[in-house]
Amino acid sequence: MSVRRASRGGSAPRVGLFGNLGSGNIGNDASMEAILHYLSAEHPDAVIDALCGGPDEIRERYGIPAIPLFWYHRYYQRVSGISALCLKLAGKVIDVFRIASWVRKHDVVIVPGMGVLEASLPLRPWGFPYAMFLLSASGRVFRTKIALVSVGAGVINQRMTRWFFDAAARMAFYRSYRNTSSREAMRQRGQDVSNDRIYPDLAFALPAPNSVEPVDARLVCVGVMEYHGSNDDRRKSAQIRSEYVAGMKHFVGRLVDQGRSVRLLIGDTNGSDDVVVREIIAEVRQSRPDMEPGTLAAQQVTSLDDIMRAMVPASCVVAIRFHNVLAGLKMGKPTIAISYSPKHDELMKDMGVPEFCLAVNPFDVDALVQAFAELESHTAELGGTLADHNHANEQLLKEQFAILSAELFPGATRRS
């Protein structure tokens, strides 16, 4: 994908991408890729750069100029103790000017999808929530249009985290949410959402891989993650993780005992999910020394496209990470979501399959086994249901992209 470098001169729109991009979360990068496809198709003259969590990855993979989200990131692997604390504190002040200077150089800054207004996973207020606040505040000061596009939101109990996110959302120029519960959560948090729109997750706009590989009725894709609970579960995070991993070991073992082949998938490339993959494989192999080679394997993936390609030959999918679940649904695969947040429940409901969404906490492996048997008995009708909803999602996202062009780039020339 060809991307023009950002510059302050010229009439081409200057577009910034903001968020935890390039930092290992495949779902976040998929949302960004959808925006890049949109800009390439509709506004090919746009000059693009990023302020993000993984600037090296963004530069290397997408050819986009990028700088770190936080000033402190250049030092965090080289210092510790009191020096690290002092640098972090200094960074909170420096980032005010860094982010403001970056925002000022743009006509539009897009926050592409992601759960940027939720805390379903552990989150510190002076990290990303603070950066979001600085982004929107700078947008207001310099009249740069800040667009939160198909983002996720949720109930947040931590007061400072909620305040930063609420202020950021309030000052944004454009807001849309990826589901009804996100908009409702913001309404409950005191936000005026009367003009805010609801559109599907941006990843639904990405093309599905073309493949003629046949479906193997014995193959099941199982997505796992390094799960420790939500922001409210810090005190019992070890117990939550232990129960989840033990349950997945049991479930995968049951699949193997039934003559299935299992392909384990991750959703984060920073290495954390790999630990759970190794634990499951070690346990299942140790307890089944006669298991045929290739029965249980880990699939290496670095993008949502990789995940979807891995799912092509699978008969069905069981996953916990949100965008692994989304990938299964997008591929038309009968899918079970192991839910750690309302976004999972909402996604499964929106796709017409709410009965196949199970809670991770507490994790009921017997309920999962039962749901899997039910899933397999309805594969034909589930395929048709998912196909209809996928088509509807694609049309809705085309509508949103047209609105973005009208509101964010009113004077720009669109490709016809």
Describe the protein:
The chain has 416 residues and is α/β, with parallel strands linked by helices. The protein folds into 2 domains: 14-198, Rossmann fold, CATH 3.40.50.2000; 219-388, Glycogen Phosphorylase B (Rossmann fold). Helices cover 46% and strands 14% of the residues. It is built from 13 helices and 13 strands. It has helices at residues 26-42, 55-62, 81-104, 128-142, 159-171, 180-188, 237-257, 272-287, 304-311, 322-330, 342-350, 365-376, 379-408; strands at 14-19, 47-52, 66-68, 108-112, 145-151, 174-177, 197-198, 219-223, 261-265, 296-298, 316-319, 335-339, 357-359. It has a 7-stranded parallel sheet, sandwiched between helices. A 6-stranded parallel sheet has the order 10-9-8-11-12-13, sandwiched between helices. It is globular, with a radius of gyration of 22 Å. Mean pLDDT is 92; it is low at 1-9.
Beta-strand percent range: 5-15%
The structural class is alpha/beta
- Total separate domains: 2
CATH class of the largest domain: Alpha Beta
Describe the largest sheet: 7 strands, parallel
Query: Can you name the CATH architecture of the largest domain?
Result: 3-Layer(aba) Sandwich
Return the average pLDDT rounded to an integer.
Answer: 92
Count every beta strand, where a strand is a DSSP E run of 2 or more residues. 13
Q: Give the strand line-up of the largest sheet.
A: 3-2-1-4-5-6-7
SSE arrangement, N to C: EHEHEHEHEHEHEEHEHEHEHEHEHH
The low-confidence runs, each spanning 5 or more residues with pLDDT under 50, are 1-9
> Termini separation (Å)?
19 Å
Tally of helical segments:
13
Instruction: Return Rg in Å.
Output: 22 Å
CATH superfamily grouping of the largest domain? Glycogen Phosphorylase B
Q: How much helicity do the residues have?
A: 40-55%
CATH fold-level assignment of the largest domain: Rossmann fold
Give the CA-based shape: globular
